[in-house]
Fold each of these.
Amino acid sequence: MIARAVAFLRGTLVQRALTLGVGAAVGQAAVVGVTPLLARIYDKGDFGVLAVVLALTGVGVVISSLRYEQAIVVAETDEEASAAAKAAGGFSLLTVLVASLLALAVGDALARWTNSPALRDVLWMVPVIIAAGAGHQMLVAWATRRGDFRALSQAKAALGIGLAVSQLVLGFVFDGAVGLVAGVGIAWFVAIVFLVPAAGGLTWASDRAAWEAIRRYRRFPEFSLFASLFNRGALEIPAVALAALYGPEVAGAFLLANRMVATPARLVTESAYQVYLNEASRLLRDDPSGLVYLFRRTLRRMALRCAPAVLVLALAGPPLLVWVFGDEWSDSASYVRLLAVLFAAMLVTQPVESTLWLLERQDLQLLRDVARVVMVSGAFLAAWWLDASAIGAVAAYVGAMVAGYAFLLLLCRLLLQQQPEPAAASVEPAVA
């Protein structure tokens, strides 16, 4: 069994990582390439509105299916996975309905609280974007289950290109942040088109099968839902907090800096995450001892290969951003060096963060994510209490996030110590 796993890993892991990497590179290059043009079409306030919308839709997509899309990956049979997909779809429709009602009920109050009057003009698009994002994440889960990395790669490229082109074109058609926000929804729908061919084996499950899947995988909503909600909340708190404390212009400047730093980082982490998830789920079924070695090697390789890139970003990123975007975006440049520290931690940690829920320890995942949200919220509360500058608030946020990543690795290590040690020491890493 070990020898077969070694041969399989050697023959496919690098190829799969490269396949995903190419698609992600094309999409992310489109996003990065068009950003300087967007910075001249839209102002900081428009980017601030986009930041708030992304925070709302990011949380909405995460909770939409109550995390039953994760069951699609780990289900033992396609029939069981199809039942989980039907359950996820039903909960997603309910989430979209609730989001629509909330947009009508509290939209004006939210616009006032975030100092973003223009938010009222785009809030109606939030439920539409949530619907598109929910459909996308379910199809991604199915393609990951099938190991269809070609479709995943094409979808990644389509997502980035669709976002770049739509935001650029719509910027000449509409005033304000409408084009930035609408482009997000368009991009999700474009990516879905490329994932539909990967839905082979997905069948229409009966209601009884869907209810059985809901019962069988109830630990995902019981623990993973809240863990994912807290996890996403930690990422989205800055946009809302910065807008509320310092205004949408500051939130927009932070978003642009975050976009320029995070986009290349996601090029690595998302591809490595999906490859690790696919292989870890297979090893968990066929050879649990291989999971320990896969985790260690992935962590080691990510650290060694990402360190030079992070160092270059920290040193050259700020002056390069000012040169590309102009002096009016100099405040964004001041955030880049701080964000480089954060994304160094993210690059190392995110590819293996699925370890806890793969081992069905959603309780530990929830513990980690609650702790991180508390730390991030505390960072911004401290900035408000101390009347700190925006750069001080961002520094506190970065420190809290890095601490959260360190806590995750500690939990994974303690849990994997309970797994059997691998009998082979020549398994290829999950990323190359």
Note: The two ends are 23 Å apart (CA to CA).
Amino acid sequence: GGNMKLKKKKKDDLIIFHSGEIVEVQIITKELERNNIKVYPVDENASVLFPANISPGGIAPFRIMIRRKDLEKAKKVVEKFLKKKKN
């Protein structure tokens, strides 16, 4: 069994954390980065993986990608940020 497949650790998987308007995405990205959560640019290939998110002839929403292991922390950051925005 010399079948050595390179397996990435699941928690290092990149996941789409949020998608929305560019302004909102930029603000959330800044908040995440301030909290030491690395945000990855979504390249054009992502739209191939998620064709449902693209309306025909329309533009895809802007997306924020993070590592799976940062998800819980990112959720807390955004929740805190959204509470602040309401007040």
Note: The first strand starts at residue 14 and ends at 20.
